[in-house]
Q: What sequence folds into this?
C-alpha cells in the first residue's frame, strides 16, 4: 500500500512539472531578482508535433492575484508567436509565483509554477581596515589595579566585620511606632 502512495506522489509531481498539452510545451526560467530592480521571466515554446507548424494564438500570464495585464504599469510582455514568450516586471517588490497559459493552433500549454525569488544583496561593502591606534587608556594598568584593590579591600572588610554586622542586624530591636505630628488630632 505504501509503495502505491509513493508512486502516486511521484506521478503527481511529474505531472505538475510537465508543461505541455497536445502539441505544444512551455518551459520557463525561475529568475532571482533584487528588490526595486526589473526582472524578466523568459519562456521557450516548443512544438512537440514535429510534422506540424504550430502558431501561437494568445497567452495569459497569472500570478497569485489572478490575470496580469501586459503592457500596463509594472508588467511588460513580449513574444514572437513561435519560439519565445517573456514577462518583465519593472519594479520587483515581492516574491511571487507566476504561470503562463499558451493557446496555439496545435493545442494549449500551461507552464509549471515559476517562482521569482529575491536575490540577497549584501549592504556592507568590503573595506579593508587601515592601521588603528590603541587609545592610551586601554594600555594604562592603573584603573585595572584600582578595581582589583577595591575588591580585595571589600573582601577584607566583610571578613573582619561581617559577623559583627550580622549580629547587629539580628539583635536589632524594632522601632517604636512613629507618627507625624502634623497628622495628630488637636
A:
Amino acid at each position: 500500500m505504501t509503495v502505491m502512495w509513493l508512486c502516486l506522489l511521484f506521478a503527481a509531481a511529474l505531472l505538475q512539472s510537465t508543461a505541455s498539452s497536445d502539441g505544444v510545451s512551455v518551459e520557463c526560467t525561475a529568475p532571482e531578482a533584487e528588490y526595486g530592480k526589473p526582472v524578466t521571466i523568459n519562456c521557450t515554446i516548443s512544438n512537440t508535433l514535429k510534422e506540424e507548424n504550430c502558431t501561437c494564438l494568445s497567452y495569459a500570464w497569472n500570478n497569485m492575484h489572478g490575470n496580469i495585464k501586459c503592457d500596463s504599469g509594472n508588467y511588460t510582455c513580449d513574444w514572437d508567436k513561435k519560439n519565445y514568450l517573456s514577462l518583465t516586471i519593472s519594479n520587483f517588490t515581492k516574491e511571487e509565483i507566476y504561470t503562463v497559459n499558451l493557446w496555439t493552433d496545435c493545442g494549449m500549454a500551461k507552464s509549471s509554477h515559476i517562482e521569482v525569488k529575491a536575490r540577497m544583496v549584501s549592504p556592507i561593502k568590503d573595506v579593508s581596515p587601515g592601521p588603528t591606534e590603541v587609545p592610551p587608556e586601554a594600555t594604562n594598568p592603573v584603573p585595572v589595579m584600582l578595581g582589583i584593590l577595591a575588591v580585595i579591600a571589600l573582601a577584607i572588610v566583610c571578613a573582619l566585620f561581617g559577623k559583627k554586622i550580622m549580629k547587629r542586624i539580628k539583635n536589632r530591636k524594632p522601632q517604636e511606632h512613629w507618627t507625624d505630628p502634623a497628622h495628630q488630632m488637636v
Notes: Residues 19-118 form a domain with the Immunoglobulin-like fold (CATH 2.60.40.10).
